[in-house]
Design brief:
Layout (H helix, E strand, L loop, with lengths): L5 E5 L4 H12 L3 E6 L9 E4 L5 H15 L4 E4 L14 H29 L2 E6 L2 H5 L5 H21 L4 E8 L5 H4 L3 H10 L8 H11 L11 E4 L8
Helix pairs in contact: 1-8, 2-3, 3-5
Keywords: Oxidoreductase
Protein name: Beta-ketoacyl-ACP reductase
Pfam family, one: adh_short_C2
């Protein structure tokens, strides 16, 4: 095994974020998570932080750096949805999703790359969605925020690629989480029928790809969009 790295997963207290944090912990890394509300999981170094607040992000990084040193692997996973059809979508519905999902990613990436530049190495992993490139009914705000992460990763790659820092996008499809568990059976059936693999993914299947893209094996991959969607979006 390679030596333990300091890993930060934003929004790592549930769903895909929790699975990603668990995957890195099981691989022997020092895993830190940020969470916004509720009780944090005890198994990780958890820091309360809000990605829409720069000061709170800075404070979280200081706490992590004091404990483990600079963040070497950043997984920008924190996100929200406010789905509604375009004609009903308020400007606040749009801007609040952009502020969390896109500007939130910018805030944590900007802060993380300070330490990565000093270390002369780093991995930036942005969690997007199949909807980012495929589109989704009632998701103009969410889809826009997730599509923009591709441009972000590719610009970071051009800026920091020579510093041994990679930036990639993981685009999960339908994942079996608390969010999808509550969908009506009929809706779930429609979704499954549209997926070539004919099933939802387990959160661990996304987490394993994230862990791999952060590994030394993937050191020459940057600016890529890696779909984990059972063939739904075909990678675009």
């Amino acid at each position: 095994m390679t030596s333990p790295k300091t890993v930060l997963v934003t929004g790592g207290n549930r769903g895909i974020g929790y699975a990603i944090a668990t995957e890195f912990k099981n691989a022997g890394h020092n895993v830190c998570i940020t969470y916004r509300s509720g009780e944090p999981p005890a198994e990780f170094f958890s820091v309360k932080a809000d990605v829409t607040d720069t000061a709170s992000i800075d404070a979280a990084f200081k706490e992590i750096e004091a404990e483990f040193g600079p963040v070497e692997v950043l997984v920008a996973n924190a996100g929200i949805t406010k789905d509604t059809l375009l004609m009903r979508m308020s400007e606040e519905d749009f801007t609040s999703v952009i502020d969390t999902n896109l500007t939130g990613a910018f805030r944590v990436v900007k802060r993380a790359t300070k330490g990565m530049l000093k270390l002369k190495r780093g991995r930036v992993i942005l969690i997007s969605s199949v909807v980012g490139l495929y589109g989704g009914m009632g998701q103009v705000n969410y889809s826009s925020s997730k599509a923009a992460l591709v441009g972000m990763a590719r610009s970071i790659t051009r800026e920091l690629g020579s510093r041994n820092i990679t930036a990639n996008v993981i685009a999960p499809g339908f994942i079996q989480t608390e969010m999808t568990d509550v969908l009506p059976q009929e809706t779930k059936k429609q979704y499954v029928n549209s997926i070539p693999a004919k099933r939802f993914a387990q959160p661990e299947e996304v987490a394993q790809v994230v862990r791999w893209i952060a590994s030394d094996e993937a050191s020459y991959i940057s600016g890529a969009v890696i779909p984990v969607d059972g063939g739904l979006g075909m990678g675009h």
